[in-house]
From TrEMBL:
InterPro entries: DUF3597 (IPR022016). Residues 20-32 have a biased composition (Low complexity). Residues 4-130 form the DUF3597 domain. Signal peptide: none annotated. Pfam families: DUF3597. Residues 15-46 are annotated as: Disordered. It comes from Methylobacterium variabile. This is DUF3597 domain-containing protein.
Length: 135
């Protein structure tokens, strides 16, 4: 199970019952969720122009988090918001999955890159991403 697929699945297909097949570099998958019945539950996911409204989904999760989490700029907070392991080793795993070519010991630079890549992958897999998060 890929970490990126889990992230994309939790945001774009929260009722899809599984990991999304997120596109990673070099892949040509459609980004459709693996298994699960979207059914009526998926209709409650906020959409804009037929795409899942990533900002609305994450703001809703943040409002329920019980702690301030800045998902807009922090990959660590984004992962925490999704109840995923946000440790350095987990982020290094995500970096490897996304073919990060920088120094994984420079976690600040890697974190910024990871956040941008995850936002880009959300958009590539059918998410409506706010303009201020695109690079």
């Amino acid at each position: 199970m890929s970490l990126l697929g889990t992230i994309v699945g939790k945001i774009l297909h929260p009722f899809g019952g599984g990991e999304a097949q997120a596109q990673t570099p070099g892949e040509t998958t459609t980004g459709a969720p693996a298994g699960g019945d979207k059914g009526a539950a998926d209709s409650t996911v906020p959409k804009v122009d037929g795409k899942v409204d990533v900002e609305a989904v994450l703001n809703d999760l943040a409002a329920k988090a019980g702690q301030p989490l800045n998902w807009r700029t922090s990959i660590v907070d984004l992962m925490k918001l999704l109840h995923l392991d946000s440790s350095l080793s987990a982020r290094k795993e995500l970096a490897k999955e996304l073919n990060y070519s920088g120094d994984t010991e420079d976690s600040a630079t890697m974190n910024v890159w990871l956040h941008k890549q995850v936002i880009r992958k959300l958009e590539e897999n059918g998410g409506k991403v706010p303009a201020d998060l695109k690079d």
